[in-house]
Amino acid sequence: MTDRDDRQNRPDSLADAALDALFAEARAERNTRDTGDLPDLPPGGAEGLPPGLSARILADADTLMDQRASAAAAERAAARAHVPARGFAPGLVPAGAGGMGGAMMPGAGFGPVGFWAQVARAIGGGPALAGLGAITLMGLWLGLMPPTALQSGLESAFGTGLSANPYLVDSTSAFEFLDSEG
Amino acid sequence: MAFDDPDAIPDDALLVLYANGDGTAARLLTDRLAPRVLAQAARMLGDRAEAEDVTQEAMLRLWRIAPDWRQGEAKVSTWLYRVTANLCTDRLRRRRGGTTDLDAIPEPADPGLPADEALQSRARMDALQEALDQLPDRQRQAVVLRHLEGLGNPEIAAILDISTEAVESLTARGKRALARLLAARREDLGYDG
Questions:
Q1: What interface predicted TM-score (ipTM) does this complex get?
Q2: Where in the sequence is the domain holding B22, given as residue range(s)?
Q3: Are residues B88 and B132 in the same domain?
């Protein structure tokens, strides 16, 4: 004998079939009755929703929709007010709060952007500018004071001294050569 | 926007339409979902006025989340059942911690009902509700969702945030408890013999 059979025969427990019938009746009640018949149980279907409740729910929906529309309109107005009229990219402002990695979109920004700021952004931002400056200074320093290692490296690479370097120009005039030959 | 066949539009699509400012979508969603929320809340709380408040609050939360709703990630109805379950649990906890709420007492049967069968049916529904009210919250939620709302175990598991096995256990224990509670009223229910 199963637990289910045992329960059905016990006087202190309602049979499964009776309970299932009760559930089925409750589901049917919900789907068919109107609110006047059964105040405790709401019926199914749109027509069964109490009119007052339906109106309150839709009023909430309308209120939130209006609030969102107002907020969006205010945001658009604020964005229009902050778009720069002149500069590197007039009318263009960064999309979002920098989250697009410097992408530019028309009229969707969060404040004015100056000319140099736009140039810096076009190059790649602060880190790119710092790298560019460091490389420039290093090139200048190497040009003015070439280290010995660099010079000996050049000689070993080309197999000659600096005097044989094809890039060195003989500054002796051709007229001086003719004078010396006579 | 014109809705040629409103029934064919999924809930999440309607929610996106509402978020984009379509009031008709809000009305369709209300017609479709609010009665189910109200039924769940009424069964959970055993009180119509409180159930209406919970329904309004649950739908308000749906309107609020509409702009952030990500289509395809969850069913709107499942999300709403879950919110309703949580709201009902909060109210039941508050109710236990406070004084007896007169509104929570089941309304007496309407003496004006003409048919004996209608009266007996009403008595059965009242008995069922009273028995449901005596179940622990989680068992009651599981039984209401499974046997009165007709949801499947996986969906109930998602709503209650538990495993499917736990849902099966909760509904089985809840059903056994209901059977015990209703046994004393076997004759009243008309199920004797």
A1: 0.74
A2: 1-99
A3: no
